[in-house]
Amino acid sequence: MGTARHNLRVDGARLWSSLMETAAFGATPAGGINRLTLSPEDGQVRDWFRNACEAAGLTVGTDELGTQFALRPGRDSTRPPVATGSHLDTQPTGGRFDGILGTLAGLEVVRTLNDAGIETEAPILIVNWTNEEGSRYAPATMASAAHVGTFTTADILARTDVDGVSVADALDKLGIAATEPTGSRTIGAFVELHIEQGPILEAEDKTIGVVEGGQGILWFDGTITGFESHAGTTPMPRRRDAFAGLAEVALAVERIARAHGPSAVGTLGEAVIGAPSRNVIPGRVRFTLDIRDPRAATLDAIDAELRAALAEIAGRRNLGFTLDLVWRQEPVPFDPGIVALIERGADSLGLPHRRMVSGASHDACNLALKVPTAMIFVPCKDGISHNEAESATQFDCTAGADLLLQTLLTLANAPVTPPRA
Ligand code: GLV
Ligand code: MN
Ligand code: MN
Question: pTM for the complete prediction?
């Protein structure tokens, strides 16, 4: 086997055909993917991924939360692997690139190294993290969070979806059996390739986003309680309409986020009426909030303002409410050394680039708490993501995978970088 070659390039057509082949698992008529974590379709893509990794000579292990680890040995098996990867689950109306690009680009990097007969000093590890999306189970990125110890495995296994199915039951139902405890897999560095999921790169005609860190996130679960009564007989002044109260909350979220703009964003993404009926005034609603900003102090301020707004709305309308913080992700900086390495790599590949902070949450944001970590972004069409219309070009996907290849090669052949923790 030879050594690193800096003129090495991935096979962009092969990467693209892997993306299109796996898009069949959970394909929607509108051209997107519905592949919620630990669904039967997620089971199918996991099997595909395992088979493809084994065919590439990798050894695949699975942790207690179903995260898949595919290892390519290095010359020095005492060195911690340089890891890459992302996720293969999607939103219910998800696209074909969010997470999938980063996972399959890892596979393409390994296939490219195999074809060229290149051995690295440190092993290379490709990871498919369970439930990055956070749609079926909260929080998002729960498996990588448990991997770094932010949550216990038992806590995450007990989380339930809206039908009351726990993570443990969903894993059992798919026949996913652990071969290793969560958190036991050593990782020396982590580099994740992802679509930007926003409009900046496309607008500025840049092929690469060099990601310096991730912004902070607050997730809330809330309820508003009023009183169910007859829609035809209850005079307007006597009503305690939970949904009308929620409508005011939605506007308050928008107003508060805008007041902390332009960086802050706030979304009321789920609103469910307790027992919906055309001629019953809603007595109960359940809702979720997603608040983000790159500064922790802004998250604190928004948290306080939201609670005050809810109390005011509920008091004025004679409603009850609850608001529970179910997830707080602190803003996280990435490793300056790997960020600079990615930037130099983009220069040497002649790819136009800019630095940026990730607006979306990623498993890399958890890994960054324990090991040197950074991310590479490529553009997506019109900045659209979490939508079946999500789209990226073969050129940009290939460019991102080439940069991932160069970055992993450099890290895996550099002098040992021990994990920080
Ligand atoms: C994950 O996709 C998130 O940013 O919410
Ligand atoms: Mn993603
Ligand atoms: Mn996503």
Answer: 0.92
